[in-house]
Each structure stands twice: as C-alpha cells, then as structure tokens.
Specification:
The structure is a homodimer of 426-residue chains. Chain A has 13 helices and 13 strands. Chain A is of the alpha/beta class and 426 residues long. Chain A has 2 domains: 159 residues, Aspartate Aminotransferase, domain 1 (Alpha-Beta Complex); 243 residues, Aspartate Aminotransferase, domain 2, CATH 3.40.640. In chain A, α1 runs antiparallel to α13 and α12 crosses α13. The radius of gyration of chain A is 23 Å and the shape is globular. The two termini of chain A are 18 Å apart. At the A-B interface, α2, α4, α5, α9 and α10 of A face α2, α4, α5, α9 and α10 of B.
C-alpha cells in the first residue's frame, strides 16, 4: 500500500501504531551515533601491522637516503609519490603528499587561492568583490563550509544518476567569470554514492570557463572504497583534461583516512605540473615538511596499489553487511509505502535517502529525541538548506551491526511517523 | 694583533697566507652543510623508543576513552594538553596541540588573521590597505618569509643583549595602528641565542598597542634547549600579560621538532581562552583532527615535564661539544684579530657572528665555493637585507664533530681572507 493512497482513518491508525512503536524505542534510552562517515574500530584493526614496519633507525631511511625523522622533502618522499601517484594515475611531479588530512589540503588550496590566487590567476581570489563556487548537491557539508568560511557564494547544482547536471555547469562556467570553482566527489559521491559517468568526466575535462583560473576540486575520497563485486569505475580526470590541454583546471584530492587511519593517515593532492610548482613555492612558506615517517609507514605497509586493493577488500568484508542491513531494512519496512527513496551505492560511506518533501528535519529530530544522532537534515546542501527538506545522509559504517539494526529500526519508525503526520496535515 | 692596525704590507702578506690556506681547502672538494638548525642523526636516535609505546589497539586509547586512530579531538588529546601545558605554563583550555610543524601553526595563525582577523578584530587584516609587523633582527628567516608572503610590511627592530629594543617597540606600537604584530624568539633567540630579560618580558606583557588586535607572536622554539649548566630562564609571558588584563595580546608557539623528531614531532599553540575559542571555531573548517596517535606517542614516551627535561639533557651532551668546538675555534683563530664578534649562547641552535661591515656575503660565498654551505648572508634580516652585511648564522648541530671541525677551519680562513680584502681596499 502507498501511504498517500490510504484513507485518513487508516492513516490515523497507522500513525497511532507508529507513535506506540516510537514511544517504546524512546523508553530504551538509546545513545547511538550515525552522523559521520567514521570507520569502526574493527576496520582500524586491519591496518595495525603498519606500526611494526620500523625496526630501527635504518628502517626509517627512504629509498633516496633521506632520514625521514628529520626535516626536508616538503612535497613528500618519492616512494609515497610513486605509490599514491599509481593509485590516482598521475606522475610523481604531479603530486604532493601531505599530512593526515585531505580536508586541510583542500582548505589550504582555497585559502591560498584567496590570498595569492592559483597558477594563472590575474589576482588573488580575495581581491574580487564576489566569487562563486558551484556545489553539486546533495554534497559534502565540509566542502560547503570552506566556501562559507571564505565568503564564497555557493550555487546549488542538481545531481543526476550519472553525476551533476552538466548542461547547467557548462552554461554557468562559460558565462559567469565570478565562478571560480566546483566541488566534486566523483566516485561514490557523498552522500548519494553516485559514480560520474565517462561522459560527465569528459565534459568536466573539457569545460571552457570564463574565469581563466577556474578550478575543479575533484575530491576522490572514495577512490578504492568499493562495497560490491561490481564496483563503479571513473575516468582519470587529469588524463582526460590533458587531451584538451586543460590539465591546469584540475585539483585532485584523496587520503588514506578511510584506508588506514582517519586520525593518522596520509593525504594527497594531485594536479598539473604547473599547479604543483606554483603550490610548492607557496607551501614552502607554510611548512618545512609533513610527517615523512607516516608516509614511509604507509608505503612499507601497503607496498603497492595491489596492496591497497587487497586491504580495501578487508574493509569491504566488514562494511558490506552493514550497508546490506540498512538497504534490506529500508526495503522491508518502507519498500511499499512510497514515503522514502534511496540509492544502492556500490561503494563509499553513505546511503542517501529522500523522504516526502518537508519531512527530513522532522525525521532527524525524532531520531535524536529517541537517542540516535543522524547527520543534520540540510547538511548535504549549501548553507545547510535543503530546499525540499527531504534529504538525509545515513552513515552506517561506525556502529556495530546490532546497534545499526536498532538505529535503523528506529529510523524506519520515524520516517513512517513523520510521513503520516505530513499526509494527515494535507 | 688587531688586523685593522697592521701595515698594508703585513696585511698583504696575511692575505697571501689566507689565500694559500683557502686554496688548500678548496682542493679537498668538501661538501658540508651548516645552513639550517637541523638535529644530527645521533640526536634523533635518543627518541627511538617512542616507536615502541604502542603494543596493540588498546594502547592507542587516550585517558578519556578516545580511540586516537579515529577522527575527532580537533584541538588535541587531553593528556597532550596537560603535558605541553605544563611545559609552557598554561592551562589546558589555553592550548591547541597541532600537527608536526609549529611553522604551520604560525603561518595558519597569520593566514586566518588575514582572511578573518583575530579575536577582537574589527575586520580581517587583509581588508586594510597596509599592515605592518615589527621584526627584531637578526631573527628567523621563516618568520620574515611569512610576512613577505602575505604582503605584511616589516620594520626592523635592533636586538640588544637582553632582547629587542623595547623603547622603540613601545613607541611604535602605541603610535601606529597599522602595526598588527611582532615576531619574538624569547629564549635562545634565533640566531643570537639571547634570552629576553624579565624587564623585557614585563614590558612586552604591558604593551598598549594602538591596533586593538595587535598580537605578539612568541615563538618559544627553544624553551628547553639548554646547552650549559647555567641555563637562561624567561618569565611566562601569558602569566605576565594576565596581570595587566592583556592576555589576549599573546600567541605562543612551540614544538618538539628539536626535542623528538623534526619531521614527526608535535606542534603547540598557546593563548588566552578567548583566542583559543576563536581559533578553534575557524580551525574546525580546516581539519577534523591532527595526528592524535603521534600526540599520544609523545605523551607515553615523555610522561611529564621531568621526562622532557631528562631527554633534553641527552641532547645537551651531544650538542655542547659542537658548540664548544665552534666557540673555541673562533677564539683561537680569530680572538685577537678584531675582525669577528660572536655570542656565547646558553642554549638554542645557533651561534650568531658579526664580521666587519660589508664582509658577510663575501665570507658565505667563499665558504660555498670551497664546499661548505652556510645560511645565506642577510637571511637573518627582513627582506634578506642585512644593512651592514655583517651577520652570519652558524648552525653547528647537524655535522658530526670532525666535519664541523673542518667546516669551521675553513670558515675562519674565509673570515680572515674577506677581512684582509676589505681592509686592503680601504
């Protein structure tokens, strides 16, 4: 039965049952957190042998003889550039190995652009009266927060099943020189889990922006984070851009935060040689070197891209059951009611759901009152404002299976209750 | 004999001997580096047991139950705040534990001030037509580089034996509202090795700047880096400033780069509660957390301030002989010639020397030609311009004793040669 098609009387009865179920849950005094894309402790355990790779001072010398304990090597040690260059499909002169946070690399890239501009800028972005970024949404709240922080106006771009709306993007960037950038999570997008199609990547790689210093911020956060045996693949944006002589338009980011350790991983930025040279020069004012021991630790542990892939297979074994639990529960509890839509991602860290219009805030609030914290409704949109108040990002990775089961049962009840409330009020 | 008082004939003979000695050195094909304040490998070896503190996942849990491998704890784990708070004499709500680089914390502090201002700013520093920093010099080239990077005009302040010229500083900051900051290395200043006297610190703590958002950048890089049994001590600037209700004026920085590992240490920022709150809010846009495992590693290894002090005693055992070698050689080779002045620091990483006016560049260039790289002449002044071309920063820590001996022999010859050239030309 579709909830929208039953009588008001039946709806009122349905709501009463939901309220009873909700009250029962509330009485349990739960305290669960499904708000962030955070690996579980069992996932972190997989990489523990990484801390055994150093046996003595000798073992801390990189291939070129650098003592990784000491100063130097601003843009990273060579073997890390090789490993992560291979992972992203870029050369070692097209990569910078950073500290533990790709968010920091992205923030710093925008911050430098504001104060100094990027390669090819006529002037720093901060010298313009107004600059704007395109923000495919639903998207990643921390990307949007960087824009807000620097006073960059955000324009929401709708997401389709093959990526963001390229017609709109092409039109806007070629007409409006205040548009300086766009945020993309091209594989297993946060939160929709969508992979950009080959056509979408090719169209990105061939954009003709009016702003000559426009940049695509390509946050490849989930580049090896597959959940199924039929993973999605995306084209190499830098390679595609080179075919058009437009490689300076692309900033690529990635990290091992969800490969090794969120708090102690390695972050990566990749870009054209021109970009890397310009960034390196400015970066040398900010720091002498990132943590090279941690870079070396990662290289020694993973060895090569096959090593990373084999490691990710273990993550998959842990995560796939959690995603399946959520998807199965949504299907079983809500599949026939017509009150929730969701994606079935082949990878990434989230399941994105859409409630009936106007119900997302209510669902999140109901869950919170009963002890389950979800990502705030609206967080997936620029300025935290979901125009339809319908998108919710579910992050199933952190809770153990039994807690996830409990949290999802509550979630389904809250969706039912909020939907019934809405339909009764119409 | 004073070289300035001998006859031209004697001077010419002296020069000829120097030229012969120099040619002999040049023939050796040396390749030595005394340019940066970099610890030697033997110093790094002392902290190697730090890599044994983690035995399993359990051992990576902080006192409050945080899994340090995962996300969270933006401003650092509590036990690291306690340890380094005790070291610097500040409370745990007055401290942020960062990544591996205090330079990055300083850069970020200036960068945020430019784009957003500091606590109490009427507007971001970048919105002013011109802002200026006071730069006691000789000073640290990387401080000056940050100013140059952000277009902050630098005003050189002379250094005295008890710290920078406070009369000049007090006059300038209370009259000129474009002056937004000052760089200080208060203990074992880079490069002079001077400790700011109690009076100087008290005068700093009681400045009355015209710019209400003026900040003292107090880079306490060498806070425990003593070289003798009669170490210098400085007053706690934050404590002193509190007595005057001016604690918001102070930004303190430190790191373990020269305590544990330059490439993999822990950096620290301390400031008033108002400042820390404002910074934390902005920092949350830049990153989710710094490397907490490395923070915990440091706490587990050092345990407490006594542990750090005991550790620094081992550094002293390695470094004191190097500093003594340099000082003895300068005394023996140049003590009576009246062509070089130098400091005898009780700590820090440098020996600062002053040649006859106009000779520093020549000395550095002669050394380089013969295979010994020194810090570039002028580097210790804003814009790399030493008005008298006389200051050279010697960094004796990195080379082994035998190499240091060779390098210093060459250095003394170069000083003699350059001085003779100058005096003959007069």
């Amino acid at each position: 039965m579709l909830l929208s098609e039953i009588s008001k009387k039946e709806l009122a009865d349905f709501k009463a049952v939901c309220e009873k179920d909700y009250a029962d849950f509330k009485a349990k005094g739960l305290k669960l957190d499904m708000s962030r894309g955070k690996p579980g402790a069992d996932q972190l355990d997989i990489a523990m042998p990484m801390f055994d790779v150093f046996t003595n001072a000798e073992s801390m010398i990189s291939e070129d003889g650098t003592d990784c304990r000491n100063y130097g090597m601003l843009t990273g040690i060579k073997e890390a550039k090789v490993l992560f260059g291979n992972l992203l499909g870029v050369n070692i002169d097209e990569i910078i190995i950073g500290g533990n946070s790709s968010l920091a690399l992205m923030y710093d890239a925008v911050s430098r652009a504001i104060t100094h501009g990027v390669y090819g800028s006529e002037k720093p972005w901060g010298k313009y009266d107004k600059i704007r970024f395109l923000c495919p949404a639903p998207g990643y709240d921390r990307h949007f927060a960087i824009c807000e922080h620097f006073g960059i106006e955000m324009i929401t771009i709708p997401m389709h099943s093959d990526g963001p709306d390229m017609d709109m993007i092409e039109k806007l960037v070629c007409e409006d020189e205040t548009i300086k950038g766009i945020w993309c999570v091209p594989l297993y997008s946060n939160p929709d889990g969508i992979a950009y199609s080959d056509e979408v990547v090719k169209r990105f790689a061939n954009l003709s922006p009016k702003a000559k210093d426009f940049r695509i911020f390509w946050d490849n956060a989930y580049c090896v984070h597959h959940l199924t045996d039929t993973p999605d693949r995306i084209l190499n944006i830098l390679e595609e851009a080179k075919k058009n002589g437009k490689e300076d338009m692309v900033f690529i980011f990635a990290s091992t935060s969800k490969i090794s350790f969120p708090g102690a991983g390695v972050a990566i930025m990749a870009a054209s040689v021109n970009n890397i040279k310009q960034i390196t020069k400015l970066l040398g004012i900010q720091c002498i070197s990132y943590d090279k021991l941690n870079q070396l630790r990662h290289v020694r542990f993973f060895k090569d891209v096959d090593g990373i892939n084999a490691h990710m297979e273990k993550h998959k074994q842990i995560l796939a059951p959690k995603f399946n639990l959520v998807l199965d529960m949504l299907e079983k509890e809500l599949g026939r009611l017509g009150i929730l839509e969701w994606n079935k991602p082949n990878g990434g860290y989230f399941i994105s759901v859409n409630t009936l219009n106007g119900c997302a805030k209510r669902v999140v609030s109901l869950c919170k009152e009963a002890g389950v914290v979800l990502t705030g409704a609206g967080a997936t949109f620029p300025y935290g404002k979901d125009p339809d108040d319908r998108n919710i990002r579910l992050a199933p990775t952190y809770p153990p299976l039994n807690e996830l089961d409990t949290a999802m049962r509550l979630f389904c009840i809250c969706v039912k209750l909020a939907s019934a409330e809405k339909l009764l009020a119409e």
